Amino acid sequence: MPRVHTRTLQSFSVTENKRPRITLCADSNFSAILLMVDNRCIFLPTFLYGSENWTLTALQRRRIEAAEIKLLRPLAGYTLYDHKTNDYIRRELWITGIIDKIDEYRRNWLSHLQRMPQNRIPLKSYHYRPQGRRTIGEPN
To answer: How, if at all, do strands 21-25 and 4-8 pair?
Structure first.
């Protein structure tokens, strides 16, 4: 039977009564569990900061997905030579894709903009269309 240690994290307190608990277990899945906690708490919010306003091209979407899978593949215990698809790895780890999260953040931001009063700066900048034409060539 594996030895289990439970510790309350003092530095991650969200409220006084609710603190996340991490259970440390001498098990082979321990590193995967700890990395999953890191993925949800550290990597995703850091990576997705400001993604509501990103304009992503198809190339950027592919690169973001490649970076995500590069992080998740060893977490699932696979290498490139195992030939597991990205969707298979995500389903096995029960993780939503980062591109789907970015799209969700963008939808939430758009609905937030639609609820804003007309005098708010974010709504004005969203509807802003520059007047006139740009000059041809490199700016001086």
So the answer is: antiparallel
